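Subject: Predicted fold for Multidrug export protein MepA, 444 residues

User T.R. writes:
Posting the sequence so we have a shared reference for the thread.
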Amino acid sequence: MDQKILETEKLSKLFIKFTIPSIIGMIFIGVQGIIDGLFVGNVIGGNALAAVNLVQPYMQIIMAYALVISVGAQSVIGINLGKGENEKAQNIFRTSLILLTLISILVMVIGIFFSDEIARFLGANEVLLEGASTYIKTISYFVIFVSLMFLFEMIVRTIGKPNISLVSMILAVLLNVILDYLLINKLNLGIKGAALATGISYASAFFINIMPFLSKKTVVNLYKGKFDKSCLFPMVYNGSSEGISSLSNALSMFLFNTALMKMAGENGIAAFSIINYIAQVGYMVLFGIADGVRPIISYNYGADNEDRVNKTLRTSIIANLVIGGIIFIVMEIFSEPLINVFLKDGKSVLEMATAGARIYGIAFLFNGINILISSYFTAIDDPKSSIIVAVSRGILFITVGIFILPYIFGINGIWGSIVFAEVMTIIICFKLFKKNEPVEVTNL
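User M.O. replies:
I've generated the structure tokens; pasting them so everyone works from the same file.
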């Protein structure tokens, strides 16, 4: 079976085989929003860009519950496949599919009928309300496809077919570019066109990733298994740290948008939007490595191959440190020309975003390890430690930083709160390693 390569293939080859498609796939997920930002910012203008950024917490909530179930299912399925318990793995897959579908239907209905209320709650003023509400309502029609895409994309890698995930992401991004050009630039559909382009591209990725599961020969598929309520808590609990990461992104964006609206108005939110687009590419590379090695770690953890688990973790830490350093250098040196790509005018936004990006970039010296360690704990079925890391970097220290640092450093304190959160979290990570001793820390 394809999943057996996780236990038998040479680790260096396996690392490349799984992380490269995952990195590219995650980048393409991040690029979806960037493509919208490029078209919206250059064709419609700064206020439209701010409106799209305001609704990102709503998108993060969709990703949050999707990742809780998808990552939890991926890790538990991987461990059970490693143990040879294929029937249990199939039941977990069926349970996750049913649960995710039901939640997605509920969220879709809420988004369609309460888009104005959601937009106002997220901080939209009269200038931004119409655009934000339109984006929320339009993207809500695609919630089921977006959510289930994550599930099938995660599990398709666990069954040893990472290239399917890669192909789906590449095609989705190409489609998004084409649709953004047609719907925004040619048909003048504005923000609604941006949401349609994103929704349709996610739907295309869903249909590609579902293909292997239509075969009864696949170790987990759409035809076997049953809903097993006994696996609900372990699955959701194990994936909860990934959901917390997405929820924390929603919270931090809400806090950032609120603080920036008070301090700098729409220009502040537009500046944050651009910084977020640039940083998102860096985050997706780091998440791609963590995401790519998770099925390797979970499968070998289930098969009691401790040495393969430790070697995979060491390699991943080194890779994330190197990549984080490169991203830091890029944001320090090339922030102004990168930011200029998103704007057709607006000197004040450019200056604000350039200064903010250089401060924000420092966080990449630390966050690669934090992202990886959280994912590692999820892979070895230690959700408690993973949750501690996710809450620390995404909720606790971000909140503390954003409420304190702006009073000391002004607007630079808002950007600096990200750095503060990552530095404090890396201390937590090392303490968790020493306490739990999941690997030989001295050999890392």
